[in-house]
Write a structure and sequence with these properties.
Number of helices: 0
Distance between the termini: 31 Å
Number of strands: 7
Oligomer: single chain
Helix content: under 10%
Order of helices and strands: EEEEEEE
Structural class: mainly beta
Shape: globular
Largest sheet: 4 strands, antiparallel
Length: 93
């Protein structure tokens, strides 16, 4: 299964350098986050699965190449596990 987060409209995030997110997982063995631009063009980033508590991540947007950061329309998460919480999802410099 996957969960896509549809953005309200296509976003230009090319002026940002990082994606931040906090993750908490129960019984997960793998987890990926994707940025998706039209095509669709999508690139996964493998998230280290936390074994206890929350994990804060700051992912360089360059890790999502060749996604068009001028035309982002979706974020997607996939992996395994019973329960995964995501919080504080934002782009920054």
């Amino acid at each position: 299964d996957y969960q896509g987060i549809q953005l309200g409209s296509n976003q230009d995030i090319a002026s940002f350098t990082h994606l931040h997110l906090d993750v908490w997982a129960e019984n997960a063995t793998d987890l990926n986050v994707y940025l998706i631009s039209p095509g669709p063009v999508e690139t996964p980033y493998s998230i280290p699965v936390p074994t206890t508590g929350w994990l804060s991540l700051d992912i360089p947007l360059t890790d999502f190449a060749p996604v068009d950061l001028n035309d982002l329309f979706q974020l997607k998460f996939d992996g395994s596990g019973e329960l995964i919480y995501l919080d504080n999802i934002y782009f920054y410099n």
